[in-house]
Design a protein that fits this description.
Elements: H1 2-27, H2 36-41, E1 78-80, E2 88-90
Antiparallel strand pairs: 1-2
The structure holds iron/sulfur cluster (SF4).
Amino acid sequence: MKSTSRRVFMMQVAVASTAVIASQAMAQAKVDEKDPQAAALGYAADTTKVDAKKYPKHAAAQKCSNCQLYAGKPADAAGACPLFAGKQVAANGWCSAYAKKA
Ligand code: SF4
């Protein structure tokens, strides 16, 4: 009886750990430049690689980390953006919805 309840407990721990790892992986998923939403907004993970002909108003100093919509901390390499729910944008990224942080 004791070994059965220990086995059940160990299985519950294993299931709980797997769920935590899966949720962490989902929280850390980065926006793929090829995602339809990202492509529509001209998102680039590296602001220096934005197509200047397509986005003439883009400037190299503009990046997610100094955008009003960016929810990451200044030292973070990536953070949340409401335009890409459930994913993270690169701190050095950029998209055409960029709005300078006040
Ligand atoms: Fe980055 Fe701002 Fe575009 Fe979000 S809205 S992807 S934070 S530039």
